[in-house]
Amino acid sequence: MPFVQLIEFKTSRIDEFNATVDAWLKESAGWRTSTRAQMGEDRDQPGTYVQVVEFPSYEAAMENSDRPETAKFAEKLAALCDGPARFRNLDVTRIEEM
Predict the structure, then answer these.
(1) Nearest CA to 17 among 63, 73, 57, 61?
(2) How distant is the alpha carbon of residue 78 from its chain centre?
(3) Per-residue pLDDT reduced to its tens digit, 5-48
(4) CA 77 to CA 69: how far, in whole Å?
(5) Is the pTM value of this prediction over 0.85?
């Protein structure tokens, strides 16, 4: 069953945040288990973002989370945020292609 993690965070340092994500994508190529990610900025709350990260399964997401490299990456991102991120962990129960 597919699994999605929603991460809501605030940052005034989005360019640094994106550069950190870009470096992570290069570093983790070949072993990361996420299959897709999207990020959007809230139109009603500038500086507030939601990232949607897709995994083939909950188990794959946990495999990714358990890696020490992932923990270091998360620490780097947290340092660029204006407060703690909020996480939602969702089992995908329905997919519709539009």
Answers:
(1) 73
(2) 12
(3) 999 999 999 999 999 999 999 999 999 999 999 999 999 999 99
(4) 13
(5) yes
Residue whose token pair is 């270091």: 72
Res 13: pLDDT = 98
pLDDT tens digits, 51-84: 999 999 999 999 999 999 999 999 999 999 999 9
C-alpha–C-alpha distance, residues 24 and 21, integer Å: 5
Residue with tokens 């890696």: 67
Contact 20, 78 (CB under 8 A): no
Closest CA to 25 of 37, 40, 10, 9: 37
SS3 4: strand
51 with 34: CB under 8 angstroms? no
State the Rg of the chain over Cα: 14
Residue 82 and residue 12 in contact, taking contact as beta carbons nearer than 8 Å: yes
The rounded distance, in Å, linking the Cα atoms of 7 and 50 is: 5
